[in-house]
C-alpha cells in the first residue's frame, strides 16, 4: 500500500509539470483542458479544503480558542478570547481588524436571534451559536466544561475560606489601624477648629444660665410678694369681704398670662419649659452680640460626634476579633 501511494504521488508530480509546460506554450487555453484525469484525482485527494470551512472551538489553558476561516486569505486564524473581560463585540472587532475584507459580522443563537454585543464570552460559550461573516454562516459548538463534583466543590469552598481568613489576618488589622489613624487626624483638626467656639459658647452658656435663674427666682419673689400683700390687706388693712373680689381678679389675670404664653409659643406652660425657653432666648441674644456662628458650631459638633461614633465602632471587640469584655454587673455575678 505504501509503495502504491508513493507511485501515485510521483504520477501527480509528472502531470503537474506537464500541465505547467502546456500553459506556458498557450496562454489562451484553460488549465483544466491540460489536466489529465490522474491530476484531477490528485487535487481532490490532497486539497480537501471546501469553499466554506468550519469554525473549530476548543479550550486551551482554560481559555476558549476559535479557529475562524477568513474570507480574504481563505485560511484559518486563531483567536484566543477572555471569558470574563471580553464580550461578543470585542470578538467581532478582532475579526474585522484581522481581515479588512469582512464587511458584516454577527452572532446568532440557535433560534436565529442576534446576540447582543455586550454579552460576555463566558455566557456565549455555554450554548451553540452561529457566526456569520459577510454571506457565510458557521455553526459553532463549544465543548462542555466538566462540572465540579461535590467533593471538589467542598474543597474549593474550604480553599476560599482559608484565603479569606488569610487576607483578613494580613490586611484587615492594618486597614483598621490606618482607618483609625485617619479618623483621629480628622478629629484632632475639628477639635482645633472648634476650640475658640467652645470657649465662647461656655461664656455665653454661663450668662444665659444666670439670666434664666434670675427669672426663676424673680417669679418666686413675685409670688411671695403677692401672698404677703393679700395677707396684709385681709387681716390689717381691710377684711376678707373686700379682698375676696381682688383675689378673683388676680387669679384670672394669672390665667390670662398663661394663655398669652401659649398663644406666643404654641406650647403648654410648664416651669421647666419656660426656664429652657428663657435660657435659649438669652443665649441667642448674647451670641448675636458676640457674632458667634451658631450654625457652624453645630455643624462641627455633628462631625465630631460622627467621628467619635466611627472610632467606637472601629474599636469594637467584634471588629477587632477579640473576646467581648463582660460588663461590671456580669463580672460581679460570676
TrEMBL record:
Its main location: mitochondrion. Residues 98-300 form the Calcium uniporter protein C-terminal domain. It comes from the Eukaryota. This is Calcium uniporter protein. It catalyses: Ca(2+)(in) = Ca(2+)(out). It holds the Pfam family MCU. Belongs to the MCU (TC 1.A.77) family. One of its GO terms (molecular function) is calcium channel activity. PANTHER family: CALCIUM UNIPORTER PROTEIN, MITOCHONDRIAL (PTHR13462). Keywords: Calcium, Calcium channel, Calcium transport, Coiled coil, Ion channel, Ion transport, Membrane, Mitochondrion, Mitochondrion inner membrane, Transmembrane, Transmembrane helix, Transport. The chain crosses the membrane at residues 214-234, 246-264. The lineage of its organism: Eukaryota, Metazoa, Echinodermata, Eleutherozoa, Asterozoa.
Amino acid at each position: 500500500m505504501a509503495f502504491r501511494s508513493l507511485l501515485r504521488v510521483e504520477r501527480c508530480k509528472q502531470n503537474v509539470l506537464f500541465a505547467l509546460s502546456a500553459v506556458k506554450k498557450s496562454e489562451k487555453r484553460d488549465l483544466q483542458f491540460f489536466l489529465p484525469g490522474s491530476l484531477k484525482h490528485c487535487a481532490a485527494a490532497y486539497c480537501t479544503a471546501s469553499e466554506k470551512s468550519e469554525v473549530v472551538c476548543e479550550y486551551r489553558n482554560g481559555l476558549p480558542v476559535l479557529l475562524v476561516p477568513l474570507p480574504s486569505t481563505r485560511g484559518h486564524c486563531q483567536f484566543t478570547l477572555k471569558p470574563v473581560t471580553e464580550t461578543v463585540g470585542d470578538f467581532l472587532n478582532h475579526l474585522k481588524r484581522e481581515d479588512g475584507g469582512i464587511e458584516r459580522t454577527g452572532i446568532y443563537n440557535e433560534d436565529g436571534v442576534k446576540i447582543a454585543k455586550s454579552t460576555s464570552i463566558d455566557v456565549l460559550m455555554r450554548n451553540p451559536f452561529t457566526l456569520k461573516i459577510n454571506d457565510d454562516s458557521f455553526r459553532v459548538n463549544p465543548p462542555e466544561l466538566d462540572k465540579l463534583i461535590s467533593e471538589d466543590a467542598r474543597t474549593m469552598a474550604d480553599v476560599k475560606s482559608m484565603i479569606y481568613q488569610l487576607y483578613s489576618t494580613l490586611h484587615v488589622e492594618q486597614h483598621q489601624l490606618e482607618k483609625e489613624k485617619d479618623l483621629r487626624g480628622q478629629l484632632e483638626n475639628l477639635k482645633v477648629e472648634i476650640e475658640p467656639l467652645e470657649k465662647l459658647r461656655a461664656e455665653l452658656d454661663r450668662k444665659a444660665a444666670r439670666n434664666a435663674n434670675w427669672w426663676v427666682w424673680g417669679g418666686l419673689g413675685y409670688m411671695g410678694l403677692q401672698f404677703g400683700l393679700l395677707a396684709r390687706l385681709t387681716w390689717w388693712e381691710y377684711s376678707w369681704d373686700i379682698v375676696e373680689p381682688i383675689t378673683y381678679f388676680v387669679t384670672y389675670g394669672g390665667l390670662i398670662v398663661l394663655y398669652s404664653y401659649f398663644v406666643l409659643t404654641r406650647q403648654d406652660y410648664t416651669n421647666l419649659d419656660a426656664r429652657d425657653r428663657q435660657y435659649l432666648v438669652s443665649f441667642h441674644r448674647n451670641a448675636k452680640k458676640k457674632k458667634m456662628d451658631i450654625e457652624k458650631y453645630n455643624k462641627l459638633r455633628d462631625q465630631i460626634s460622627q467621628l467619635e461614633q466611627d472610632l467606637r465602632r472601629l474599636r469594637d471587640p467584634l471588629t477587632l476579633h477579640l473576646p467581648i469584655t463582660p460588663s461590671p454587673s456580669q463580672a460581679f455575678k460570676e
